[in-house]
Design goal:
single chain, 6-stranded mixed β-sheet, binds ligand BES, binds zinc ion, 8-stranded mixed β-sheet
Length: 486
């Protein structure tokens, strides 16, 4: 979608959107519009839309009021994104090509206007690449937004947010692509193309290099697949030369069949998005590079395909991880933690980070616990846990904290190896986190975000259509902005 800026009185498109505060209908509205809004119980709650047609100087104007929620508060910008998103959701296939955003009459500051635009852009994203027979009325018509009368600085604020929107869209693209298109090698290639010229250093380890490093757990998962695994490293060093990096690690299982512990057939197609953690990390790196973040951030994606095959690993196999610890693989479907544990050891040895945060579609149990409203976060450091929760509230990529403790940890002891890769049935998300914690070295601040319920949406949401949400990109971007930059 094209975004441009124009002064207030430069002639406006027919369709105009205007943001209004909750419970405070503006006094300068045409009578019919104000009356219509009241009669329709329009209160200006974030994302609520009321639309009317009116005549202005001989021209017909289609005016859409959208609620921006209450002013102030930590969720203000997320609410305004919602408002922008509600506008594009309403008019995306309406036949209208251009929407004017009446920023001048919306009473918003530069950052707030940028948030509205960001919501508009994010909600307009769709992945129609493989739809060759889309009916005319289902095709997107809205192609342009003209921002009218925006305050000084809005355009600059939007350029920053535009970089973040591009990151979100890139993550969505990676997630939406099917597993015959995106597999470890092609994930890397897509990144090589997308990151070219942006100042991000990109390195991809192949299986031979990972074997050399002793990544027996990650390679064990990959063993049953025809596709070669990759460990992708994306480095953005925009901070002080001496500052230790913040590292994000993403689970990138490009398809999770379960392996020999095969998943049931129904719904298995969902497991193309079992690389949503890696998608979020790649998208966030694109956002950080795009807005030239003043921080040293490294994104690492553990990319494998989990398939059953004559050479696949078996339940009961014992693998040796890069850390030297051994794991009894009780269930080959608990593969994400096997991939992450070697990636975590690698980043700690290679980059001596101050903070490591991993993101993973790790357990179905997390979806049972939190549904699609929050990701779950586990942290070995309370301050880090709080910072992530706050980044979640600010960005709209919400998180909820879960516990870690020795009592849960002992549930994954094994009689034959140092640990097993699954615990008993209960507390499945927590035992998965305990497993990961066994690979965190002393003094490293670490958090694990289980985002299984957040990567894919069956229904349209605040700033996304149904399908890939891009969850995690803004979480990471906001975390970096709030805690790692200047
Ligand atoms: N990728 C799945 C988790 C998942 C399930 C994500 C549904 C999104 C939607 C993960 O690899 C997995 O299969 N986990 C198992 C763990 C179990 C075997 C301990 C699960 O959650 O059932
Ligand atoms: Zn699995
Ligand atoms: Zn998985």
């Amino acid at each position: 979608m094209k975004i441009s800026f124009a002064p207030t009185n430069s002639g406006s498109p027919r369709l105009v959107g205007r943001v209004v505060e909750q419970d405070r209908l503006p006094t300068d509205l045409p009578v019919a519009m104000a009356e219509g809004a009241r009669a329709s119980r329009f209160s200006g709650k974030a994302g609520q839309v009321f639309e009317g047609f009116m005549e202005e100087g001989g021209n017909v104007v289609r005016l859409a009021l959208v609620g921006g929620g209450k002013p102030g508060g930590e969720e203000r910008l997320a609410n305004l994104e919602r408002a922008g998103a509600a506008l594009t959701a309403k008019f995306l296939t309406s036949g209208e090509k251009t929407l004017g955003l009446d920023a001048g009459h919306s009473g918003l500051d530069a950052d707030e206007v940028a948030a509205v635009i960001s919501g508009m852009r994010l909600r307009a994203w769709r992945w129609d690449t493989y739809r060759t027979k889309l009916k005319e009325e289902h095709k997107r018509s809205l192609a342009e937004v003209v921002v009218m009368g925006a305050p000084d600085g809005a355009e600059v604020a939007w350029r920053e947010r535009e970089a973040v929107a591009e990151g979100v869209e890139f993550a969505r693209e990676l997630v939406a692509e099917p597993a015959n298109i995106i597999y470890p090698e092609s994930f890397v290639e897509r990144c090589e193309k997308r990151f070219a010229g942006l100042g991000v250093e990109l390195v991809a380890l192949d299986e031979a290099q990972m074997r050399e490093l002793g990544m027996g757990a990650l390679l064990g998962v990959s063993q049953g697949s025809m596709r070669d695994a990759r460990l992708l490293v994306l480095k953005w060093m925009g901070g002080a030369a001496a500052a230790r990096p913040t590292v994000f690690v993403g689970k990138g299982v490009t398809f999770d069949s379960g392996g020999i512990s095969l998943k049931p057939g129904a719904g298995m197609e969902d497991m193309k998005w079992d690389m949503g953690g890696a998608g979020a990390v790649a998208g966030a790196m694109l956002a950080l590079a795009g807005r030239k973040a003043k921080a040293n951030v490294i994104g690492v994606c553990g990319l494998v395909e989990n398939m059953p095959d004559g050479n696949a690993q078996r339940p009961g196999d014992v693998v040796t991880t890069m850390s030297g610890q051994t794991v009894e693989v009780i269930n080959t479907d608990a593969e994400g933690r096997l991939v992450l544990c070697d990636a975590l050891t690698y980043v700690q040895r290679e980059f001596t980070p101050e903070v490591v945060v991993d993101l993973a579609t790790l357990t179905g149990a997390m979806m049972i616990a939190l549904g699609h409203e929050h990701g779950g976060v586990f942290a070995n450091d309370d301050a880090l846990g709080e910072q992530l929760l706050a980044a979640g509230r600010l960005s709209g990529d919400k998180l909820w904290r879960f516990p870690l403790s020795p009592a849960y940890d002992k549930l994954i002891d094994s009689p034959i190896a140092d640990m097993r890769n699954v615990g008993p049935r209960w507390a499945g998300s927590i035992t998965a986190a305990q497993y990961l914690q066994r690979f965190i070295e002393d003094g490293v601040k670490w958090a694990h975000c289980d985002i299984a319920g957040m990567v894919w949406a069956a229904k349209p949401g605040a700033t996304w259509d149904k399908g890939a949400t891009g969850y995690g990109v803004r979480l990471i971007d906001t975390f970096v902005r709030e805690n790692c930059e200047g």
